[in-house]
From TrEMBL:
Family: Belongs to the flagella basal body rod proteins family.
GO biological process entries: bacterial-type flagellum-dependent swarming motility
Domain Flagellar basal body rod protein N-terminal: 8-36
Subunit structure: The basal body constitutes a major portion of the flagellar organelle and consists of four rings (L,P,S, and M) mounted on a central rod. The rod consists of about 26 subunits of FlgG in the distal portion, and FlgB, FlgC and FlgF are thought to build up the proximal portion of the rod with about 6 subunits each.
Segments traversing the membrane: none
Cited InterPro entries: Flag_bb_rod_N, Flagellar_basal_body_rod_CS, Flg_bb/hook_C_dom, FlgC
Annotated compartments: Bacterial flagellum basal body
Domain of life: Bacteria
Protein name: Flagellar basal-body rod protein FlgC
GO terms under cellular component: bacterial-type flagellum basal body, rod
């Protein structure tokens, strides 16, 4: 087992959750953006973005079989990766506001599909995940420090 696996796992999770918080912040900032892109000759509103993460971990059976076969799989990087950022396919909201410059002929404005309450809940979850990984990183660091004190 590689001695820095704990650091690698926590670092990858910190990076992934930071990206998640950045995307959520972008969603909140663009919650009222009606002209995010120009498609087919007209402006379209901002679409909510979501982060897709994927684990790099092997299953217990894979690790067990590799160990039985004499393969050292512990040197492979472990943790989590952001694989992609996708757009939410939920429909946009129509809001009646005939004085808005982007209103259609009926007076409705197509608004982004961003729900502030959902974004705030997602942000709280991302912040908690980030904090728990900082705690895990500090615990790993503390274990290293205690191990170094044994030799004194």
């Amino acid at each position: 087992m590689k001695i820095t696996n704990g650091f690698d796992i926590s670092a990858s999770a910190l990076t992934a959750n930071r990206m998640r918080m950045d995307v959520i912040s972008s969603n909140v900032a663009n919650a009222e953006t009606t002209r995010a892109a120009y498609v087919n000759g007209e402006y379209v509103p901002y679409k909510r973005k979501m982060v897709v993460m994927e684990s790099n971990e092997q299953s217990f059976s894979q690790i067990f079989n590799n160990t039985l076969n004499g393969n050292d799989a512990s040197s492979k990087f472990k943790g989590v990766n952001v694989t992609k950022i996708i757009e939410d396919s939920s429909p946009t909201k129509l809001v009646y506001n005939p004085s808005h410059p982007d209103a259609n002929v009926d007076g409705y404005v197509e608004m982004p599909n961003v729900d502030i309450a959902t974004e705030m809940v997602d942000m709280i979850a991302a912040v908690r995940a980030y904090e728990s990984n900082v705690t895990a990183l500090n615990a790993t660091k503390s274990m290293f420090m205690k191990a170094l004190e044994i030799g004194k």
